[in-house]
Amino acid sequence: MKRLFLKSVAAAAVLAVCGVAFAQERTIKFTTQNPKGHPLVMGMEKFAEIVQAKSGGKIKVNLFPGGVLGGDAQVVSAMQGGTVEMASLNSGILASQVKDFEVFDLPFLFANGKEADAVVDGPFGKKMHAKLEAKGLVGLTYWELGFRQITNSKRPITKVEDIVGLKLRVIPNAINLDWTKALGANPTPLAFPEVYAALEQGAIDGQENPLSVIAANKFFEVQKYATLTNHQYNPQSVLISKKFWDTLSAAEQKIISDAAAESTTYQRQQAREQANTALDAVKKGGMQVSELSAAELAKFREKMKPVIDKHGAASPDALAELNAELAKLRK
């Protein structure tokens, strides 16, 4: 019995180091738009730490936060070309590659983070990421950015009419242009690294992002008003260049995949903890924060319906699958 136990221990030790043995010296550039201290960057740091441990230091992950390698569109192109290995970005941005990803940007889709986790971690999320391989990208996991809120420098928003005429920066894709227009605002697509300067210079009146992003990027320095709308939840796709992925051995791919999975739990925990503290941070930074009444929130939802109908019709199968998953969760 003792001999069998020792054999088991030895076998486990061999398995534990086999990934290290088959890992080559490699360097990965991993980028995101948000600055150091943001939950996405904390997830990247955890991922890098796990990869280093699992590869015995052979695979090094260099982090490039703050959009220093360019906007999301540039980064996607660089990953497809193999000059950037990894990125974390809004899943909805990938609609430019695979139309079905647009469903992730539909307003008022998820009721809470628990619903979102179940959908993206389940068959639906995996199927969506699998569609990217033909576009030169491999989806590893989904991280969390959080529910989006609206800020501006002009006036408090306590009813739909208060948004009319505001020039709002949005993520550059069709659904965001349309929901902003549906509320009577003027959408201004901008790459994220340009947003702070545009707000500071008055080129735009406001923007919309989760509170953690607003706090981490100190938008309270150039914005006076915030409104808790929870109008959108953006899963964050953690992607790796397929060109790079295909050069990895099976053992190396397992190291990367396992590190992505392990860092996801940590990243989401950090995102949710920071969401709880970011509200205090923006208030301390001088922002006046408003909440919508149930009646006004219902008006917001009503104005969004034509947008959901229009963009849902462009990806009917994906939307039907997603709604079926949500229906099961809500029973």
UniProtKB/TrEMBL annotation:
It is found in: Cell envelope. PANTHER family: PTHR33376, SIALIC ACID-BINDING PERIPLASMIC PROTEIN SIAP (PTHR33376:SF4). Belongs to the bacterial solute-binding protein 7 family. InterPro entries: DctP_fam, TRAP_DctP, TRAP_DctP_sf. It comes from Rhodoferax saidenbachensis. NCBIfam families: dctP (TIGR00787), TRAP_S1 (NF037995). Residues 1-23 form the signal peptide. It holds the Pfam family DctP. GO terms for biological process: transmembrane transport. Its main location: other. This is ABC transporter substrate-binding protein. Keywords: Signal, Transport. One of its GO terms (cellular component) is outer membrane-bounded periplasmic space. It comes from the Bacteria.
